[in-house]
Every structure is written in structure tokens, then in C-alpha cells.
Amino acid sequence: MSSAKRASELKRFFENAGSLIGASWQDVLMDNAQRVSGPLATRMLSQIGITQETTMPFRLFDNACGAGAVAQEVHRLVKPEVLQKSSILCGDFSDPSVELSRKRAEEEGWVNTNAEKIDAQKTGLPSGEFSHVTTNIGFHVVPDSKAALDEAIRILKPGGTLGFTTWAQMPGWAEDLQSAFASFPFEAPFSFGVQTTEWGNWGDVDWIRKELEERGLEDVKVELFAFTSHVDNVEHYIATAGMMIDWVVSSNWSEEVRKEHGRDEYQRLVKDFLEHKYDGKGWDQKWVAVVASGRVLARR
């Protein structure tokens, strides 16, 4: 399947997260925000200078916000008196994600934080509006990632800072799934491209550095960041990775194979494989990401 087709399938999954995952979809996104995207957000925020030591108010736009992991970590890190003078806008194309971020902002008391449906490729936001723009695990799956990058830079104030993360390697859940598919008693094709957008090479630190520098950003910093997250047990793996497993099946298996081997069967086979592989216990998954940042010229 082409990258464009994979991107279209993935976009459909995220747009319909609530109906595809079921009643527990918010729990799935929240679990990911705590175990995976949260640690990544903390690392990215540190690189762009939003930490426990921050004293200057900021105006932050978090692009492709998902479950609000960036806003979550900002509120965990930054002093209340600084938050009172700052603002956060969470934007995402997915209605379920926007709904969840709004819910969290209200229930968790996030200060001066709003969530809106926003297309990363054409935000509609004013130029020079934000002191910081972040995209946590997003550019490599945006259909027109070049437009999204240019938009992120356009809406930064002079002297403003861009920060983002992308996957550098196949994520841990996909490695487990690849091994599981290989064990199936029938041919189960597996192809997983970390990047679905056709433009660029979002897992390559040198390519990212070059693109940021060519756009005139200063203090460009692009590094790899490796970490692990814990999977409690096989049921936890299926609950949290189930949507992505369905996406891999939809993207790789023919209609004939999908009809012959339905969701109940392939989920059971994945469970059986992982139960045997990890002796019925929990395990750690490995993640390797690119963390990138750069600053817009003070005068443009």
C-alpha cells in the first residue's frame, strides 16, 4: 500500500477514534498520554525552555495535540503564577481528540487553556501570534507535512521557538505485532512505515536539521531520545494498541484475508503469541524519537 493510502487510512482511524475503539477510547488516549507522549512532551518542553524554572509568560500553540499531553506536562512543570499570565491553545483535526482535550482542561483545571479543531496544514491562525509552537509526534503523519512545518513557523512571533518530535524507529508495539504476525498459521502480511507523509524524511536528524536551517531558524537542535514504557500485560497491550493493530490489518491484508480471518481471530492469535513470549507477565517497550527545536529570527 502506498504512503498516501496508509495516511488516508490512519486519518480515518483518528477522525473516528470514538467509534473505532469503543467506549474506552478516552482511556486508551489517556494511557498513551501518561506513558508515551507525556515523557516525550517533557523532553521537548525542556529543549524549548519551558520547565520548572520558567518565569516568563508564554503563548503556546500545541499542534496535533491528541489527548493534550503537552498541556498536561506544561501544567505539571510550570509554576501557577506563570501559568496565570500564559495561554495554551490545543489544536487537532480529530473531533474526539479536541473533545478530550477540552474535557481535561475543564476537569483538571488547566489554566488559560483552550482546544479547537485546527488543520495543521492550514491553521487559519494569525501570523506571528505565538511565542512557542509544538507538535508532539505529528509531522511524519500529516498528509502535507511541508505545509504543516511552514505553517508552524509562520505563526511564531519573531524570536519565537518551534519544538517537535517524530518517531525515528518503528515503535515498540509494532515490533511486537510484527513478530506476532509472523507466527500466524496463515500468511499475515506486515508492512509498517513510521512515516506516512510523502514529503521529507522525518526520522533523519540530518534532514530535519537542514530543513530548519534552510528556513532561517537559529539555535537549531536535533537529537535522538530513547525511552521505554511499561505494558502491564497482554490485555493492556490489546486495549492500547488495538486501534493501530486494526489499521495495520486494514492497510496490509487483502479483503479476502480480512473476511477469512476476522478481528476476533487475529486478536486471539496476537494474545496467544505475546502470552507465550512474555510468560504472561508485563514487559517494557522501546521507543526512539527525534526531538527538534529552533528559534525564529528576532527580526524578520
Automatic annotation (TrEMBL):
The keyword ATP-binding does not apply. Keywords: Methyltransferase, Transferase. One of its GO terms (biological process) is methylation. InterPro entries: Methyltransf_25, SAM-dependent_MTases_sf. Residues 62-160 form the Methyltransferase domain. It comes from the Eukaryota. One of its GO terms (molecular function) is methyltransferase activity. Pfam families: Methyltransf_25. Coiled coil: none annotated. CDD domains: AdoMet_MTases. Belongs to the methyltransferase superfamily. LaeA methyltransferase family. This is S-adenosyl-L-methionine-dependent methyltransferase.
